[in-house]
Amino acid sequence: MNNSDRSHWCIANRVRMLWMQHGEWIKMAFVAIIFNNPDEERVLQRLLRNPADFARFFDCFFGREFSFSFKRLLTEHLELAAALVRALMANDTQRADKINTKLYKNADDLAAALTSANPYWRYEEWRTMLCRHLDLAKKIASEMINDDYKESIATYDYFEAEIMLMADQMIKGLLKYCVIC
Length: 181
Description:
- The chain has 6 helices and no strands.
- It has helices at residues 3-34, 40-47, 49-89, 93-117, 123-145, 149-180.
- The longest helix is centred in the middle third of the chain and has 41 residues, at 49-89.
- The model has no long low-confidence stretch (mean pLDDT 95).
C-alpha cells in the first residue's frame, strides 16, 4: 500500500467512525432521555463530543474558522434534537414545532457550511441527506416514545444506512479535495 492509498484509507475510516459515532450516540441519547436513564447527563456529554471530534478532523483540511463553525452547527443540531425529544415527550406540540423549524434551518446551515468549504460537496445533496437524517431520527424517537420498539429498531437500520451515505459522500468530496490541495 503506497502513502496515497494509506492516507485515503485513514481519511475514509476516520469519517466513517465520526458518522457512526454520531448515529450511535444520538440513539443512546434518545434512550437515556425517553427512559430517564441515570446516565443521561453523561450520554449527552459524550454525544456533544462528536462535533468537537469532527472539528479536529476538519481543521486539517479547512482550517479553524470552518471547523469552529461546523462544530457550532453540529452541536446546535444535537441540542435541538434532544430538546425536540423532550418536547415530544411532554406533548408540547407548539414547542416541538418551533424546535422542528430550527432543526431544518440548522440542516440548511450545515449544508451551506459544508459546500462553502469544499467545491466537491453539493448543497442540495447535503441538504437532502441531512433532512432525511432528521426525518429518521424523529421517527425513531417518536416510535420509542410510543412504545413501538420493533419499528424503532427497523427505522434505525435506515438511519444507519443514511449515515453511511453521508459518510461516503463526505469521503468522496474530501478525497477529491485532497487531490487539489
